[in-house]
Amino acid sequence: MPRLHHYLRNQVFLVFFLFSSIASAATVEHVFQVKDVMVKPLCKEQMIPAVNGNLPGPTINVREGDTLVVHVINNSTYNVTIHWHGVFQLKSVWMDGANMITQCPIQPSYNFTYQFDITGQEGTLLWHAHVVNLRATLHGALLIRPRSGRPYPFPKPYEEVPLIFQQWWDTDVRLLEIRPAPVSDAYLMNGLAGDSYPCSKNRMFNLKVVQGKTYLLRIINAALNTHLFFKIANHNVTVVAVDAVYTTPYLTDVMILTPGQTVDALLTADQPIGKYYMATIPYISAIGIPTPDTNPTRGLIVYEGATSSSPVKPLMPAPNDIPTAHRFSSNITSLVGGPHWTPVPRHIDEKMFITMGLGLDPCPSNTKCIGPLGQRYAGSLNNRTFMIPERISMQEAYFYNITGVYTDDFPNQPPVKFDYTRFEQRTNSDFKMMFPERKTSVKTIRCNSTVEIVLQNTAILTRESHPMHLHGFNFYVLGYGFGNYDPVRDARKLNLFNPQMRNTVGVPPGGWVVLRFIANNPGIWLFHCHMDAHLPYGIMMAFIVQNGPTPETSLPSPPSNLPQCTRDPRIYDSPMTNVDLSY
């Protein structure tokens, strides 16, 4: 009888736990009205596409386990998709929002509803447009808190503050497609340029604090093309999460964020009452390129009771301070045993060595090109330049068995081995290496397989940090280093105990990173440089994760209102038939 009583008590507890988990989940609904609006961050008015008329766009607040529903109504003059950067999209790959990868764009005067569950993630992410350059003005914060009744794995802050860093051009966003991309006119903090720029002296983001209180800064680098250093005068912060993954608390006075990265950091107002600048400056990692003079973009920490005294200024790193950037990036570790933590898988099913960087594309005849050797810039991953499809999305091509859209032949290694970080053109073969093959190629992997990727930065044109973003997954960052990766020496240094987990990683200039992830989500997932200037260059590839053995591990059917690029009845009226779009 005591055993039966114990069993029933446990069953009641289990039912209560499951009920409370279900009851704590909610459906969070938003409407995104995308339209062209006039804004004036600096001295002149500029027409931009914006969500609900704001720059940055609306902040979305959800709890882990919630269902998010966002109705996107496109009243702008642009084709639009919205990507939910860092969201796993488990069983909802059609909602990933990658233009021409998982969907065709939402055309002007059309609409589309994104709906997906947010599970197994807590922290700060972002949403943004995924059509080239529209991310400059179409972006916002996505804040994921623990389920109701579940605490943070750190002391509860007095207040939570989103900080969104942005890049601004006093020009039409369509002109940003110029190769190479034009230099930006300013950087913004929560939509404000601050007192370092003309016509913005009295428009600066102010954070009012109470002495002794602790604030959770939810920091997002939404800049289109630039890594940013961030620092607060006379204050340290404690990093507690990156890319919506909890970390071992890390005390620092400076941080670096690549485009697309996020940091959650605790700031304690522990200094004398006064005013303190917080500032960002660009991190210019390209070796051998002069660093331009750049004003810091500043906001203000204002203590309650502060007078009008001059704010204290932070001492910022030099724009090309590679050691400081590397120190911050490589010292973050995961919170072992924390919410949603999982150990590093030891068995590896797929090993890939991917060289990455810039190459050249032949200049069209009767055209003057300003790149090296009179050619155009091109991106290169294992000597492949990715070509984005134009007629139908890759996900639809995969689901409907349409051929001629992509090839399943992305290589596991570069075509030849060379001195990756000290490249010199000496032979005709070296010259050919500078011109990657233009191709829409993917790598197919089995469901639930473990993939390890060594990303090797090259110096074919210049050594530069590239922020590589993987859709649909987090990856373990097992190690960083400089020079050419040594599979014997460097493999012994990899962190297999508490490596940081991210969805976006900055590959060191002239260096390497080692990543590992479990491919547990069927569909097509993009892997690309998150500098939008490099998207037209083609620094990207895609993974196809095959279906697993059950319906739960198989690719779902597309939603009935998925935007279409073509009205070809052979595709939509007779699904799962072979169609060739290679012509």
From TrEMBL:
Binds 4 Cu cations per monomer. Its EC number is 1.10.3.2. Its cofactor is Cu cation. Residues 1-25 form the signal peptide. Residues 34-148, 159-306, 409-547 form the Plastocyanin-like domain. It is an enzyme of class 1 (oxidoreductase). One of its GO terms (biological process) is lignin catabolic process. GO terms for molecular function: copper ion binding; hydroquinone:oxygen oxidoreductase activity. Its main location: secreted. It is found in: Secreted, Extracellular space, Apoplast. It comes from the Eukaryota. One of its GO terms (cellular component) is apoplast. Keywords: Apoplast, Copper, Glycoprotein, Lignin degradation, Metal-binding, Oxidoreductase, Repeat, Secreted, Signal. It catalyses: 4 hydroquinone + O2 = 4 benzosemiquinone + 2 H2O. Lignin degradation and detoxification of lignin-derived products. Belongs to the multicopper oxidase family. This is Laccase.
